[in-house]
Design a protein that fits this description.
Elements lengths: L29 H13 L1 H7 L4 H9 L18 H12 L3 H20 L2 H14 L3 E4 L7 E8 L2 E10 L10 E7 L7 E7 L5 E3 L16 E8 L19 H30 L16 H33 L6 H33 L12 H9 L5 H14 L10
Parallel strand pairs: 1-4
Antiparallel strand pairs: 2-3, 3-7, 4-5, 6-7
Helix pairs in contact: 1-4, 4-5, 4-7, 5-7, 7-8, 7-9, 7-10, 8-9, 9-10, 9-11
């Protein structure tokens, strides 16, 4: 797969058409994804300034038919594979990485059901996702220690109550269903995932997300006050005996982040290229009539495009490694799981650093006038800067280096 379609001159000698930087091969869904991306891009700059919840744009994603792509066929979904899902995230991130984040995390929540739920729960939640087109929210930040799931009982029978506060709850606002992590009985070693309706009594999603980037991911806090949880809503432990397959969830999550970096870099390059060709002025001593003819600007684009393409190549390899690990099912070994984790760590580090460079250096190709706030070109860098801090890149590099020197793959954790 290549986001760049090469065009060859016609026999008549007609010059080749300019490359379509925003072309990402999303298979049978390419036209649908492109149409959605165009709609998101049309208001992205204004919405980035406003922040808050993008209700109309979330509705567009709901209407697109793309929410259920990762649901397996036995539950009524298309059963699409991870590399395709990630390309869609990349293409949407090139238009609006906040909404791409919510879309990617939708499929992370579906993966959570597939990895943690028992067969009856999978049937219930995945069938419901397809039939009702549920948009899932996320409240699984494991670093929050002030939440607890306690056994309880009343006239209706035995159940549990959930109390506490979760932060970084991406997509919780305006979601239909919510995955929540909490320790049972306050025991941190007995942390479970709960799947409950987002509008259940006692759930309060707060509008307190105020980051410099990713401003419409609704990643604020959620407070739980005496929320009733039925036993059937507590997903099973992470696979039989804590199997390596169940620990693939953070791998799925890390590749969502990686494609958000790639998408921001792609969107920044495409926007900068259009500005350079249509708006930028050549420097007075350049000796050229158009900014696009300046050899220094051409060199800069060559460098940035090459970095983006290298990041995409690593990401594609990592997505394929994840798919192969996923396909092994419960037969996957710790070594096979570790190999996928290393590939994903490599891709995430390189993509994050490349995207930070691309999104900062596009201004070198456009000039001072491009810093006017009406263009919104700074949002690309702010989005990557915010998301690249999700968990420290240095620890990814340490994991890679430790593997390289010792042969030991990264130990499964909430971030690797």
């Amino acid at each position: 797969m290549s986001p760049l379609t090469l065009h060859h001159p016609e026999p008549s000698g007609t010059p080749p058409a300019p490359p379509d930087l925003l072309h990402v091969d999303c298979g049978a869904y390419t036209a649908t994804v492109d149409a959605l991306a165009v709609k998101l891009a049309a208001t992205a700059v204004e919405r980035d300034k406003r922040g808050g919840t993008a209700l109309a744009e979330r509705a567009l994603i709901r209407q697109s038919g793309l929410l259920t792509l990762s649901v397996p066929r036995q539950y009524g979904g298309p059963g699409e594979r991870w590399p395709l899902i990630y390309r869609i995230v990349r293409r949407l991130a090139a238009a609006d990485s906040s909404l791409a984040h919510l879309y990617g995390f939708q499929h992370l929540q579906i993966a959570t059901i597939l990895l943690f739920a028992n067969p009856a729960q999978q049937q219930h939640y995945l069938d419901g996702t397809v039939r009702h087109n549920w948009f899932w929210g996320n409240a699984t930040n494991a670093l929050d220690g002030n939440i607890v799931l306690q056994p309880a009982s009343d006239s209706a029978g035995e159940h549990y109550t959930l109390n506490g506060l979760k932060t970084f709850c991406s997509g919780a606002l305006d979601s239909d269903m919510l995955n929540v992590s909490a320790p049972r009985g306050g025991d941190p070693s007995n942390r479970l995932i709960i799947a409950i309706p987002s509008r259940r009594t006692g759930i309060h999603a707060n509008e307190d997300w105020d980051a410099i980037g990713q401003r419409q991911t609704d990643s604020g806090s959620v407070r739980f006050e005496q929320v009733r949880v039925e036993a059937a809503e507590i997903l099973g432990p992470p696979g039989p005996g804590g199997s390596p397959r169940a620990t693939l969830r953070p791998c799925v999550s890390q590749l969502v982040l990686t494609e958000i970096y790639n998408g921001n870099a792609l969107g920044a390059l495409a926007a900068a290229r259009a500005y350079t060709l249509e708006q930028a002025r050549p420097w007075v001593s350049s000796g050229v009539a158009k900014a696009g003819d300046d050899p220094f600007i051409q060199q800069r684009y060559g460098e940035l495009w090459s970095k983006y393409r290298a990041a995409v190549s690593l990401t594609e390899q990592a997505a394929q490694a994840l798919q192969e690990a996923w396909d092994l099912g419960e037969t996957i070994t710790p070594q096979q799981r570790g190999a996928a984790a290393v590939a994903i760590a490599e891709a995430r580090v390189f993509a994050a650093r490349s995207a930070l460079e691309v999104t900062a250096q596009i201004f070198e190709t456009m000039g001072a006038r491009a810093t006017a706030s009406r263009w919104g070109f700074d949002r690309w860098w702010r989005n990557v800067r915010t998301h690249s801090l999700h968990d420290p890149l240095d620890y990814k590099l340490r994991d890679i280096g430790h593997w390289l020197l010792s042969g030991e793959p990264p130990l499964p954790s909430i971030y690797s």
